[in-house]
Amino acid sequence: MMTLRVFVAMVMLGGVGLQAQGLRAGDAIEKIQHRYAAAPPPNTVDTIKAGDPDTVVTGIVTTFLDTMDVLREAVRRGDNLIITHEPTFYNHQDDRKLFLDDPVYKEKLAFIEQHHLVVFRLHDEIHADVTDHILTGLYEALGWEKYPHPEGVGGQYFVTIPPMTLEQIARMLQEKLQMKTLRVEGDPGLMITHVAMRPGASGLEKQVLALRKPGVELLIAGEASEWETVEYVRDAVAQGRPTALILLGHEVSEEPGMERCAKELRELFPGVRVDHIVAGQPLWNPDHPPAAVKR
Ligand SMILES: [Zn+2]
Question: How far, in Å, is the centroid of ligand 1 from the Cα of 284?
Answer without folding.
Answer: 21
